[in-house]
Amino acid sequence: MVTPLLYRVWVAASAVMLPVAGRQSMAKLRRAEVDPQRAREKLGHASQPRPAGQLIWFHAASVGESLSVLALIDRMGHALPQAHFLITSGTATSARLLASRLPPRTQHQFAPLDAPGPLKRFLNHWRPDAALFVESELWPQMLRRTHARGTAMALINARLSQRSIERWQKQPALAGFLFGVFDLILTQNDAMARAMGTINAPADRVAAGINLKSMAGPLPQEDETIAEARKALGTRPVWIASSTHPGEEKSVLEAHRQLLTRFPDLCLILVPRHPERGDEVAGLIASVGLTHGRRTRGDMPEEQVYLADTLGELGTWYALSNIVFLGGSLHPIGGHNPYEVAQAGAMVLSGTHVTNFAETYAEMETAGAARLVAGTQDLADRVADLLSNDIARANGGASAKSYAAAQADKLDSIAERLITALRLRERGPDA
Fold this sequence. Notes:
alpha/beta
């Protein structure tokens, strides 16, 4: 196959830009309080030894993509009890969240920069037997250099924006050069499988899979914190608004103000998508005349609103209520993962802007596990209906739990499909 000119240009440019890009990426990690030794992983310097035997590498971009593959790794680990796993990602946040949730025999490293030196060091050290790339995290040299070593490769949970598809369509030679490295491409849905056929991906290796984000493992919970929060709440009713974005908190707080007229002791646990917005959201709560406590101050939920402005505790808050509004959905953001809520046994309320999880929400609505709301008033009405109807609330939570259990069963077939396509049972241990 002829190497496309754009690829050759990128290889040359990456070598020239590496000194600056390397300093910038490591400085960003150090500002996020990452250990300097670990920051050097961006240049391909491993901070851990390679385990003996078969190593399966998963590469993801950031938090959502990294967490989406944990349940799949767990299933593959059961099917391949001698295998070891490596996850690479690019952000400090993903590293912190993964640290407490890695499946057995799994390590994390920061992904090397897409330049010759870092990739050579990374691949020479880790020598992966198979490499699985998640969603649209497609760095040209990473793909081609991994392929050149004879590594079995798959693209999983494949998802490209319409804009990305249009760009690839204008570069068919480059698209074929890069997508041709994969032994299997599993898309999130049928529509994406069809779209892959328009960008010169190998048609005989493309298949519709499942949205792995809808099958992530249960969120971790802190039992002591749950007990303390329940003691502080007493018999008060609770609802949760999680993963909210700018503009959505105003709607949620207005809905809560309305609900307080009917349920005066109601508590709202508000969990912004980005905890660093804590001061901003706290100011918004105060501006609408509601009292609040903050997790970062060490408060417990005793006021009208509890601002849970920390990272990695979402599972703990989900344990406190079976009514959850999931943000990123009142405005055209695309929605967030409702499966985590369903696993916790809570009815999912969401806005209508859920393009990232359209199939999942459609299934959950049919199953009685989710309801879409049109705006502030609709949200207040839906929460009020659930608060005043114990049977409907319990049925919604039970339906959500049943849906989550049924989805989890699909992972076994996906794991087996990948193991077969990547010939992992045929590959001997690489000591």
